[in-house]
Amino acid sequence: MSTRVLAIANQKGGVGKTTTVINLAACLGAAGQSVLVIDIDPQANATSGLGLPRQQGTSLYQVLLRERSIQGLVQETVAPGVQIIPSELDLAGAEIDVARMDGYLQGLSMAMLPIVRNGGYDFILIDCPPSLGVLTMNALTAAHGLLLPIQCEYYALEGLSVITHVVEQLRTTRANPEIEIQGIVMTMFDARTRLSQDVASEVRSHFGDRVYQTMIPRNVRLSEAPSFGKPVIMYDPYCTGSEAYRQLAKEVIARNRRPLGDAQ
Ligand SMILES: Nc1ncnc2c1ncn2[C@@H]1O[C@H](COP(=O)(O)OP(=O)(O)OP(=O)(O)O)[C@@H](O)[C@H]1O
Ligand SMILES: [Mg+2]
């Protein structure tokens, strides 16, 4: 399988992007996949959630400014099979500094080229900040697909047309002719509430089979694990959150695998 680059994005804050990046990466790694996480959110929550400190000079900031290459930025995480290019606060400056450069949307995809061409990873997951600013746009330009987490709450569908329109624009303007909405993940699902059920069925009727079958339940273990710098499967392997992300990883692998019989 060639490397699949997925941007985990939704301009809405707190919908479970980072939780999905950390735990999907760890479960893909546990399933024998080779994974690189790229944290481009200056909040650096994926970085700390995978057990790394925030350290100046470790992020993609200088790479996006074309002051250094991506070589040497990849670090090991606590999760087997998962490596990371961390983030730190400096990256916040990129929103302004990178926007001044020519071809600034292509910065990340250019920087990633040697890594993607090398084919050493099965998956690259990019954790985006909660905006459609320069950093998220760079991620969407670099990605094969958008993985869109949607929180099961009242205003879940509000604003979604904005990001789906951006994906459409990137494709039609040929800034990224390949990009597609690779999948939608329902997060913080609470089977006991009517609201969660309603939101889930509304999203399914809107997006059809692009919505993953697996829904991530609201589970306190998922919110505790990051403060221990661990993905949930290393913190409480049998909780409902662990089970759900393992299941999601299986679906993600199946959906991204080449069709049977396709020549290598
Ligand atoms: N399934 C879940 N069950 C319980 N808590 C969750 C779940 N998913 C996420 N959370 C918690 O909700 C909060 C927001 O989640 P997360 O940080 O993953 O969202 P985000 O979309 O990355 O946020 P931001 O937009 O700020 O980057 C966090 O405190 C996280 O621990
Ligand atoms: Mg986040």
Task: Record keyword descriptors for this entry.
single chain, 264 residues, alpha/beta, Rossmann fold, 8-stranded mixed β-sheet, 8 strands, 38% helix, globular, disordered C terminus, binds adenosine-5'-triphosphate, binds magnesium ion
What would you say this structure looks like, in words?
The protein is of the alpha/beta class and 264 residues long. It has one domain (4-256): P-loop containing nucleotide triphosphate hydrolases (Rossmann fold). The chain is 38% helix and 17% strand. It is built from 11 helices and 8 strands. It has helices spanning 17-30, 45-49, 61-64, 94-97, 107-118, 134-142, 160-172, 194-207, 220-224, 232-235, 240-256, and strands at residues 4-8, 35-39, 75-76, 82-85, 123-127, 145-151, 180-189, 211-217. The protein has an 8-stranded mixed sheet with strand order 3-4-2-5-1-6-7-8, with helices on both faces. It is globular. The N and C termini lie close together (7 Å). The model is unreliable at 260-264 (pLDDT under 50). The structure holds adenosine-5'-triphosphate (ATP) and magnesium ion. Adenosine-5'-triphosphate is lined by residues 13-19, 41, 43, 45, 130, 187-188, 216, 218-219, 222-223.
